[in-house]
Amino acid sequence: MAAVSFSVRAITLDLDDTLWPFAPIGARIDQVLYEWMLEHSPATAAMYPVAAMRELRERSFRDNPHLHHDLSALRRLALAEALEASGASMDLLEPAYEAFYAARNQVEFYPDAVDALARIAAKVPVAAVSNGNADLDRIGLMQHFAFQLGSREHGYAKPHPSIFHAACERLGCGHGDVLHVGDHMEMDVAGAARAGLRSCWINRTGETWSHPELEPDLEFDTLTALADWLDAHLAA
User: Fold this and answer.
1) CB-based contacts of 42: which residues, under 8 Å, 6+ apart?
2) Which one of 37, 87, 221, 236 has the fewest beta carbons within 10 angstroms of its own beta carbon?
3) pTM for the complete prediction?
4) Could you give all domains of the chain from N- to C-terminal order, each with its CATH number?
5) Per-residue confidence at 5, pLDDT binned at 50, 70, 90?
């Protein structure tokens, strides 16, 4: 996909599967929660081993579409149901959630991600815009960001245009002067494009673009390639 020239005054950046892969985090969360329950509520662990807890979480997601912007609330719902069904004390809910959240924020960055992010943030303001519930302070990256805007805080999740517009307003930029960067065809690229932002698809897997409506303005396989493009583009 040919890179074209346009104004970039700021960047909004997705987190999960853009700066780090989420699959290893999800697997670790499942195991950490199971081991935590084994120690603190063996009856819950017996009733909800890893597969059963995952099924409960997925059902909670399906049954509560009004909470799809708030993954933390959905996680608490699943944990509360597991504790209640197994006869455990509800006093365990917040400690169980904290065990989950600590594991959720243990990330393994893509090899290029941190250096490229630092290069990008040195050029233009960067705002994190995510449907997930990662905490950049815990992860240790907040110094590279102007702010973090999550769907829970905002009230709507990507690809809803309002979360992109809210980020642009906080950045003090017109929609067309902001480049949204992310891995997801619909949530990131199409959502940003419909909201009037420029879009960059980070395609680390070599996937063929297949969205029926829209194409990204830019496509790179690493954040380093985006940083290189910004260097050349802003210099020009």
Assistant:
1) none
2) 236
3) 0.93
4) 10-20+108-235 (3.40.50.1000), 23-104 (1.20.120.1600)
5) confident
